[in-house]
Amino acid sequence: MLDVAGLSSRYGRVEVLHDVSITVSRGHIFALIGANGAGKTTLLRAISGVQPVTAGRITFKERSLNGVKASTRVKMGLSQSPEGRQVFAGLSVEDNLRLGAWTRSKADSDRGVQAAYQMFPILHEKKGLPAGSLSGGQQQMLAISRALMSQPDMLLLDEPSMGLSPLLIDQVFEAVCSLRDRGLTVVLVEQNANLALSIADQACVMETGRIVLTGSGSALQADPRVRELYLGE
Amino acid sequence: MSSMLDVLSISIAFGGVKAVSDVSISVAAGAVFSIIGPNGAGKTTLFNIISGVYIPQDGSIRLNGKDVTGMRSDALAREGLSRTFQNLQVFMQMTAVENVMVGRHMHERSRTISQLFSLPGAVRENRTSRERSRELLEFVGLGSYADRSAAAMPYGALKKLELARALATEPRMILLDEPAAGCNPAETVEVEKLVRKIAGSGVTVVLVEHDMKLVMRISDRIHVLDGGRTICEGTASEVQRNERVIAAYLGDHGRREAANA
Amino acid sequence: MTADLLQYASSGVTIGAVYALVALGFTLIYNSTHVANFAQGDFAMLGAMTTVFAVAGGLPTFPTAILGTMVAGVAGLLLYRLAIDPARSSPVLGLIVLTIGASIFAKGVAQLVFDKRFHSLPSWFDARPIELFGATIQTQSLVVLAGTIVIVAALATFTTRTLLGKGILAVSQNSLAATLMGMNVGSVVTLAFVVSAAIGGLAGIMAAPITLTSYDAGTILSLKGFAAAMLGGMGNPVGAVAGGIVLGVVEAFGGGLISSGYKDAFAFLIILIVLAARPQGLFGSVARERV
Amino acid sequence: MSPKHSRLVQLAILIAIIGMAPLLVPSNYYLRVMTLIYVFGLAAVGLNLLMGFAGQVSLGHAGFIGIGAYSVALGSVHWGLTGLTSAVLGAVASAAIAAMVGRPILRLKGHYLAVATLGFGFLIALLITNEAGLTGGPDGIAVPRPVVFGWRLRTVEQWYWISGVVLVAGVFIAQNLVASSTGRALRAIHDSEVAAQAIGVDVARQKLKVFVISAVYASLAGSLLAFCNGLVTPESTAGFLKSVELVTMVVLGGLGSVFGSVLGAAVLVLLPQVLTVFHDYEHLMLGLLMVLCIVMLPRGVVPSLARKLARTGT
Amino acid sequence: EQPIKIGAVLSVTGPASFLGEPQKRTIEMLTQQVNAGGGIGGRKIELVVYDDGGDANAARTFASRLIDEDKVVAMVGGSTTGTTMAMLPAFEEAEIPFMSMAGALQVVQPVRKWVFKTPQTDTMACEKIFEDIKARGFSSIAVVFGTDGFGRSMRDQCVSVAPKYNIRIVHEESFGPKDSDMTPQLTNVRGKKDVQAIVVPGIGQTPAILARNYRQLGMTLPLYVSHGVASREFIDLSAGGAEGARLPVPALLVGSSLASSDPQRAPVLAYTQAYEKAANQPVSAFGGFMHDGFQMVVEAIRRSGSSEPARIRDALEATKGFVGVNGIYSMTARDHMGLDLTGFRMVEIKNGNWSPIVAGN
Ligand SMILES: Nc1ncnc2c1ncn2[C@@H]1O[C@H](COP(=O)(O)OP(=O)(O)OP(=O)(O)O)[C@@H](O)[C@H]1O
Ligand SMILES: Nc1ncnc2c1ncn2[C@@H]1O[C@H](COP(=O)(O)OP(=O)(O)OP(=O)(O)O)[C@@H](O)[C@H]1O
Ligand SMILES: [Mg+2]
Ligand SMILES: [Mg+2]
């Protein structure tokens, strides 16, 4: 589904991704874990086309994404819920959702909004309020729902559990699993490594801009190095 | 132990939404006091009220016995209250060490005039501030970032930067809003050590956090909010057994985490 | 005396409507980029001057009005594509200076392409002024007023009812997120600039029969339009119109009843007083950032 | 280069330029142009403290130039004060007025502050224009040459040196302020007022402080301008276009770069002189250059070039 | 032969561009004429023109530039009183003759050795207007003046000469140079019962808006405007509103209706024809000021047979009976303007044209 090969990227003069290669299979959950500053966010940004790459190539659904505009990538079925939530603070919750369906028809948009309200009833309660007035966790729910509005084939989630209550984390992870079961491919960047690895079909560990380990979710979960460095055991 | 912070039945509403209603808490000096609750329970709002960002529509707040209701946050900082933010409020155009130095601002005594002409007093003070700030960065584990622009630091580091900055004010009480958000379990352990050290140095800590392992291990007392109201308060073991807390907040996963803590 | 008051009111509303139209253009560009566009008045000048010269060249009024509007729209397109967009990494103040530069440039071009003299357009309808309780109302004032109402209604509907309108707000609030939603930020903002400039041009064309126009008529319009937009609450089309009308009326009454020399002073005093009481303007909403 | 080091280098460059210029360009005309650069540079440096560091916009700062200019004019014409006394009184008056209007308007944010300061500038200009009995109205009023310690200051050269020295002092003080704890607090306010306040910065007070300081800079620049022109008019001191010019100087030179403001002033004073070769195309060129400057150096000359150097350098 | 350098600092752009623009065109055209005719005593004129944009500060700098860098021998221009006053000291100090186009009396009174001017003073315009008002039997008037330099100065002059004509100013209003609506002011005037005529000291195009508003309000009081609007544009822009308004204008504006015996007829027709051909726009009084000033300077250079500034100045001061388009000038050591009231002709705007008023009507 997604193939990243030899990717490098930099901020100014500092290169933060060095020769990164990953392959994500269709219908899988791919978990990406790593310490603060490892470059996970940068990688997701590069895949979405909002971060320039200096070398390497990204292939999505057998098509090269090099030189493809970010907005086109969304139309191709790639969607991201970014780090730090990035809601449109001054617009209402519902408008935020509908903007998520920018590339979709009105009917799709209506359906998506209903689905979002079903998954997170609080969003329905707050639908007319500016997104900026929501609590941190509520904004996170909005960001995730908004990313789903474009009915993507592949969803990039950057720390979806951040700021969510334990109950909601369960719920979000369940939702991610059921989305996968319906054929969606998910790239999951998570600090909640245990949980992420436990639902991941494939996973990798990133350290200072490089992929240092790859394997199935359960294999990594069992890896002593991972247990020490990322699971805090 | 005397009480450091007394919140007496405060309430606030935003255009009809009661974000916090009739909440009272009392935090003992030197304690680690946690506030937990589902998303939108009113935890951050409570912090905003205590730290003077919002003025409560009802109720009063006492800090170390003194009534501080409605006081501006800079005045509260001078009373020994400091905080970090859930939505990062880092000074992005400054370096890490400068961020922390701003925290020293209220302790800097030199007059504007002396600063304008760079008189020795001001110069000396500047140097001391810088040294102290570097120490604090070391303390939170950001020593290597000192001269980096904040804009180029990863999320997790920024959270710690806010912590160092808050500590620079030499607070007697510190409010931490999700300090471990964006940290993996290993990093969370670091945060825990840090919080313990802070509490150990006599600073009262009020903590909002969704990481149940951290909360259960570190808290002397835990206060649980839901929908702006208190649902219970108690020690870690009391809280994690409370059915309402489990239903509204912990869920299965949370309960397991809490139990394993 | 009532006749006098009515006269002040009518004159204030007319001028206010012109300010309002410029303020509307301001609002739209602000909403899409958070830039205060100090070349907004120059769109009005370009529209009016083009029309003046086309009419002088023998073309009929209405088609030339469309031509003038289009010229202004193209100017808006160029402003965004050639200047604002390439400079988007500049701080907001840099962009303000850039629009001021663009405004000076527009004046420089206008004085070469057109001339430095004052010009007027004939009223759109050749009817006698209307007498109302002793006050006189020009027919062109009614044109301006009607135009303002139509444009604000259209604009308000556009921004609050359509996805595209909300897209314009979204790109300014968070262009990264907008991009991740699949929006082509560049095209959305270009659209906002073109529409805004066209509104400005139309404002100039409708007002020219009342206020005259010349190559440097844009500056004062930009200023008053900006002031009106802020008075009404930046970003709110209804506020922009309210701000414009209030400004015009205050000027007329202040000038008529108190002192004509301090006419502008009253306008700005009112702004200061209103902002002291409502820092977000008359119709603005308090955008309190959550922390 | 450490920040402190680079500050000293900048100051040294400035002193060298001021000291050498009269040797290189001996004519009165060039001296006058340089003097204007120093005078407007002073005002721009002050405004930069407010805009570049504290992030507070002022579109009416020429109002304070007007106050400074007219206080020396009126002081000596109507009230028989010496030039120096009236300049000092002008600065005091500017500070007092800034403190008074600053309190309410600095609560406003962004463009709202811009429109409020714009209004303030307008009010001052209108007052000067309309109170013709006192101020001479739009045609202006002559400023007698001041006598300082028995010297009548009248030559271009004398004013060259005086403005040069005042500018150096102004830059020195501004640099110190920026590097001081107040300077850090101001930059912090620029980025996040809530956070600054939460860690003990009295935001309102700091903003007011820098507003007053920048007003004093502008006022002194106004007094100098009045003295070296010998005539003050409302438009050439307090007018809106002057405010815009000041903002442009600060932005072109670079928000947050003290030295940049002097450079920005130089650009804006020199441009009209250079552009005379274009005759009818002057305006067109001026506007075009402003636009190009921002497009190519979006952060202003000094910071953008510094960035580019840092990128290409080692 | 070295060319003779003459400088000009004019407000070609900015709020006073309606003054500076025709002045620039005039001086460029005349220079060409002189040079085409072989120059002055075989020496060509080299013109240096700067645009001060109406800013006194800029004017002052350009003055220095003309003196120190360009080393001109004479200076023509200074379109407004403000810019002129800013430049005066520089030319006085450098001892270079300065022929100004500024209206206000203060430019030449007290007399400054090196400074001359061509336009009639505001006082003269007021007197001319008051003469006419008195002749029509009115005695109480309203003044609606512009708050720019010209309007304010003329208003002050009118106030001070009014008693001489037994005229009472019973009401005053003002308008800003950028105002686009004067209905409120006129409404106020309309409400005053004892006003018999309105005098509008104002310059440029703003009075045209006033005239329009005046007409729209259906006002019928006699309307007097100033020589500051003496250009065709005023009539055109007022869209019929100026019909019936009276004003003092220089002979230049009523060229074709000047009697053939009128000495000004020949220069007026010559300038009008040349200017309208060169500039492709109607003449205005402001260009006329420059015409006269420049010609007098050229004459002075010719007469003195020298390009010494001091000699030019002396020759300028010795100007006697110079017939210009604006008036007939005779300078003296005590009068550096050299005009009397005869230069002004009172006209009424009739059928969209200037129409001379026969005395006593
Ligand atoms: N805007 C920027 N300018 C310069 N460097 C940056 C910028 N953003 C990130 N970096 C650097 O890039 C590296 C990778 O950052 P990135 O945000 O991708 O890490 P991450 O793995 O997502 O970390 P976290 O878990 O904290 O979110 C870090 O070293 C960071 O300091
Ligand atoms: N300024 C505001 N305007 C409107 N509603 C607000 C505002 N601030 C808070 N709220 C509402 O008050 C409630 C409490 O929000 P708060 O941020 O305190 O929650 P929280 O407990 O911190 O949640 P989280 O764990 O998600 O951070 C939410 O429903 C939120 O939408
Ligand atoms: Mg990240
Ligand atoms: Mg919260």
Automatic annotation (TrEMBL), chain A:
SMART domains: AAA
PANTHER family: HIGH-AFFINITY BRANCHED-CHAIN AMINO ACID TRANSPORT ATP-BINDING PROTEIN LIVF (PTHR43820)
Role summary: Involved in beta-(1-->2)glucan export. Transmembrane domains (TMD) form a pore in the inner membrane and the ATP-binding domain (NBD) is responsible for energy generation.
Name under which the protein is recorded: ATP-binding cassette domain-containing protein
Biological process (GO), any one: L-amino acid transport
CDD domains named among the record's database cross-references: ABC_TM1139_LivF_branched
Superkingdom, taxonomy of origin: Bacteria
Any single Pfam family the record assigns to this protein: ABC_tran
InterPro entries: AAA+_ATPase, ABC_transporter-like_ATP-bd, ABC_transporter-like_CS, BCAA_Transport_ATP-bd_LivF, P-loop_NTPase
Membership in a protein family: Belongs to the ABC transporter superfamily.
An MF annotation (GO) of this entry: ATP binding
Residue ranges occupied by any ABC transporter domain in the UniProt entry: 2-233
Organism classification: Bacteria, Pseudomonadati, Pseudomonadota, Alphaproteobacteria, Hyphomicrobiales
PROSITE patterns according to UniProt: ABC_TRANSPORTER_1, ABC_TRANSPORTER_2
Keyword Zinc-finger annotated: no
Glycosyltransferase is among the record's keywords: no
Keyword entries, A-Z: Amino-acid transport, ATP-binding, Nucleotide-binding, Transport
TrEMBL record, chain B:
PROSITE patterns: ABC_TRANSPORTER_2
GO MF terms, alphabetically ordered: ATP binding; ATP hydrolysis activity; L-isoleucine transmembrane transporter activity; L-phenylalanine transmembrane transporter activity; L-valine transmembrane transporter activity
Pfam families named in the record: ABC_tran (PF00005), BCA_ABC_TP_C (PF12399)
GO BP terms, alphabetized: D-alanine transmembrane transport; L-alanine transport; L-isoleucine import across plasma membrane; L-valine import across plasma membrane
ATP-binding in keyword set: yes
Membrane-spanning segments: none
PANTHER family: AMINO ACID ABC TRANSPORTER ATP-BINDING PROTEIN (PTHR45772:SF7), CONSERVED COMPONENT OF ABC TRANSPORTER FOR NATURAL AMINO ACIDS-RELATED (PTHR45772)
Protein's recorded name: ATP-binding cassette domain-containing protein
Organismal lineage: Bacteria, Pseudomonadati, Pseudomonadota, Alphaproteobacteria, Hyphomicrobiales
Automatic annotation (TrEMBL), chain C:
Localization annotation: Cell membrane
A Pfam family reported for this protein in Swiss-Prot or TrEMBL: BPD_transp_2
GO molecular function, one term: transmembrane transporter activity
Signal peptide feature range: none
Keywords per UniProt: Amino-acid transport, Cell membrane, Membrane, Transmembrane, Transmembrane helix, Transport
Membrane-crossing segments per the record: 6-30, 62-80, 92-114, 142-164, 176-199, 238-259, 265-287
GO-annotated biological processes: amino acid transport
Gene Ontology cellular-component annotations: plasma membrane
Topological category with respect to the lipid bilayer: Multi-pass membrane protein
Family note: Belongs to the binding-protein-dependent transport system permease family. LivHM subfamily.
Name of this protein: Branched-chain amino acid ABC transporter permease
From TrEMBL, chain D:
Cell compartment(s), UniProt: Cell membrane
Transmembrane segments: 7-25, 31-50, 112-129, 159-179, 210-232, 244-271, 283-302
Record keyword Nucleotidyltransferase present: no
Membrane topology note: Multi-pass membrane protein
GO molecular function: branched-chain amino acid transmembrane transporter activity
Name used for this protein in its record: Branched-chain amino acid ABC transporter permease
Annotated PANTHER family: HIGH-AFFINITY BRANCHED-CHAIN AMINO ACID TRANSPORT PROTEIN BRAE (PTHR30482:SF10), HIGH-AFFINITY BRANCHED-CHAIN AMINO ACID TRANSPORT SYSTEM PERMEASE (PTHR30482)
Keywords, comma-separated and alphabetical: Cell membrane, Membrane, Transmembrane, Transmembrane helix
First-listed, main subcellular location of the protein, grouped into a coarse class: membrane
Organism per entry: Bradyrhizobium pachyrhizi
